[in-house]
Amino acid sequence: MKPGMLMVVSGPAGVGKGTLVKQLMSQRERVVLSVSATTRMPRPGETDGTQYWFKDRQEFESMIRSNQLLEWVEYCGNYYGTPVGHVRSCIAEGKVVVLEIEVEGALSIRKQFPDSVLVFVLPPDLAELEERLRGRGTEAPEVIGRRLERAAEEFRFLPHYDYYVINDEIDAASDVMARIVDTEQLRISRNPDIVDRFLT
Amino acid sequence: MKPGMLMVVSGPAGVGKGTLVKQLMSQRERVVLSVSATTRMPRPGETDGTQYWFKDRQEFESMIRSNQLLEWVEYCGNYYGTPVGHVRSCIAEGKVVVLEIEVEGALSIRKQFPDSVLVFVLPPDLAELEERLRGRGTEAPEVIGRRLERAAEEFRFLPHYDYYVINDEIDAASDVMARIVDTEQLRISRNPDIVDRFLT
To answer: Which of A2, A78, A131, B71 could form a disulfide with B108 if both were Cys (CB 3.0 to 4.6 A apart)?
Structure first.
């Protein structure tokens, strides 16, 4: 059995993390998405338990108090967090659990899972990122401005990540992600059974 | 430009490291082989400067004394070592320099190049390894016995390596090596220019 692992995927809003992870899951059936909890409102088409578990602030704060979250953060006025529930059991089953979270959460995950793989999804350049945010058409101009400022803050965390993936063309970027998964699963530190097999 | 790096490839005699590295070089033109110096006799078909630089003991010991070797080792009665010459300049040019060396040399390289990638090539199992050593037909039975004992010693170093590659089918194994190269070149620690581009 290939080893289970945790892959953290971060990147600025508008860079296309969600689409990329969805494509990766269609290429590698071992890859599963950890669904986050959030207090932000669902966008059109989003359903509870698919993109997010949608909670009100009271529910979310109750999850914090009862240690049901691996990490959580307040960002642009909303809570986001990772329910600990299935993450550990999926890893034990040999799955590659993807957490799509922002930078502070990523560093917190790294502390709890030192073997996790941290991937930062980048736009080809900053102009392209702004273009994509405007093109999405779901946000007011001042929200776009705030997201760009936030992106600049997030890039400062790049040196803490393991790999970068430039999301220029989705198929190419998804292939790169798949290759990172495949390669990381060949790490000797993740495969004590291989070492045992040859240490007779 | 993609980042240069050093890749150390080890594995027991008979596992097919040489063929694997040759195939990898045909798949990725950035990959170059660092030719080792040795005092062992050339096998039929081997030429000086291609498989090895063939030296007598006096010449080799002179290279040791004048610090022309990154690492060296005496193994089965012969010296093997890595001339430092082109290694550093190739890395600076963005090449992936492959060193095909044994386990003690690999650990010594890791100390001098902490960013180097250590790959251990494994046979599908031990019976297959013995089979391949016999099939090569160039060694006396007692040499084969010694090589198998040595293989058992080498496997003890597995936990110090980054990745394993099982050389069952050459094309598949070479693809895996190529993927390790591609993935390692996406490490943020190897790409300070990417970080600079987004930290404006």
So the answer is: B71
Quick check: A101 and A36 in contact, CB under 8 A? yes
Q: Which residue has the tokens 């220019």?
A: B193
Q: Count the Cβ atoms, other than its own, within 10 Å of residue A180.
A: 23
B1-56 pLDDT, tens digit each: 789 999 999 999 889 999 999 999 999 999 999 888 999 999 999 999 888 899 99
pLDDT at residue A190, as a whole number:
95
Please state, in angstroms and rounded to a whole number, the distance separating the CA atoms of residues A82 and A105. Answer: 9
- Model-level ipTM above the cut of 0.90: no
A180 in B contact zone (CB under 8 Å): yes
Nearest to A4 by CA among A185, A179, A183, A193: A185
In total, how many domains does chain A have? 1
Q: Which residue of A has its CA nearest to B11?
A: A198
- State the amino acid at position B94 in one-letter form: G
- Give, as one character, the DSSP assignment of residue B169: S
Q: What is the pLDDT of residues B152-192, one digit of tens each?
A: 999 999 999 999 999 999 999 999 999 999 999 999 999 99
Q: Quick check: is B140 in a domain?
A: yes
CATH number of the domain that residue B180 is part of:
3.40.50.300
Q: Are strands B69-75 and A96-100 parallel, antiparallel or unpaired?
A: unpaired
Q: Does A187 touch chain B (CB under 8 A)?
A: yes
Residue ranges making up the domain that contains B149: 5-34+95-198
In a domain, B45, yes or no: no
Q: Is residue B83 part of a domain?
A: no
| Closest chain B C-alpha to A152 CA, distance in angstroms | 7
Give the angle B81-B86-B90 at the CA atoms, nearest 5°: 125
Q: Do A180 and B186 touch (CB under 8 A)?
A: yes
| Gap from B137 CA to chain A (nearest CA, Å) | 24
By C-alpha distance, which of B103, B93, B96 is closest to B71? B103
Average pLDDT of chain A to the nearest whole number: 91
Tell me if B77 is assigned to some domain: no
CB pairs under 8 A between A and B: 78
